TrEMBL record:
Gene3D superfamilies: 3.40.630.30. One of its GO terms (molecular function) is acyltransferase activity, transferring groups other than amino-acyl groups. Keywords: Transferase. CDD domains: NAT_SF. The lineage of its organism: Bacteria, Bacillati, Actinomycetota, Actinomycetes, Mycobacteriales. This is Acetyltransferase (GNAT) family protein. Pfam families: Acetyltransf_7 (PF13508). It comes from Nocardia puris. It comes from the Bacteria. SUPFAM superfamilies: Acyl-CoA N-acyltransferases (Nat) (SSF55729). Residues 49-179 form the N-acetyltransferase domain.
């Protein structure tokens, strides 16, 4: 899944939430492949990992999910995640707890992250990953980390919950979709 971690690193290189963890762009670009590799490994063991491929067979988009009944996927490689986060660890833990507190109490499918390679954005790869999973879910939840993505999720039937302001950081947009 090395290619998948690089897809997510490119997709989130300038994301407001990720930039809160690593404000320095050079440090962020260096840290992201390892960070995403750890997150992917966790979802491979305790969740769902979906990829969409472009016509050449390269990964175009990646989605990481937690299925219904899973409230927080265990970290598969905690040391690699801690190493990737470095000094961002306290901010990441605090923000993660705040995000987790916004999740519905009822069983739900949680879209932990979805990212598309910048060179193929707008070509339907994210939708290709989302629609089959959403068709099976009674309740789905996500947290948009960039307001620019909110309209895309709304077109898929998601509705915004109360915005989540991270102290000293960005505003996040929890969203849910019912069948």
């Amino acid at each position: 899944m090395t290619q998948a971690s690089h897809v997510l690193a490119a997709a989130f290189a300038d994301d407001p939430f990720i930039s809160y963890f690593w404000p320095d762009p050079a440090r962020r670009r260096k840290a992201l492949p390892g960070f995403w590799a750890s997150r992917i490994a966790s979802r491979e063991r305790h969740g769902l990992v979906d990829v969409a491929r472009d016509p050449s067979g390269d990964i175009a988009a990646v989605a990481l999910w937690e299925p219904e009944g899973v409230t927080s996927a265990p970290i598969a490689r905690p040391y690699s995640l801690i190493r990737a986060l470095g000094t961002a660890l306290p901010r990441a833990l605090s923000a993660s707890h705040r995000v987790d507190a916004t999740r519905p109490s009822a069983d739900h499918l949680y879209l932990a992250v979805i990212g598309t390679r910048p060179d193929v954005r707008g070509q339907g790869y994210a939708r290709q990953l989302l629609e089959p999973r959403l068709a099976e879910a009674d309740l789905a939840f996500l947290v948009a980390t960039d307001f620019a993505n909110v309209p895309f999720y709304e077109r898929l039937g998601f509705r915004r919950d109360a915005d989540l302001a991270i102290p000293g950081g960005p505003v996040l947009y929890p969203m849910r979709r019912t069948a």
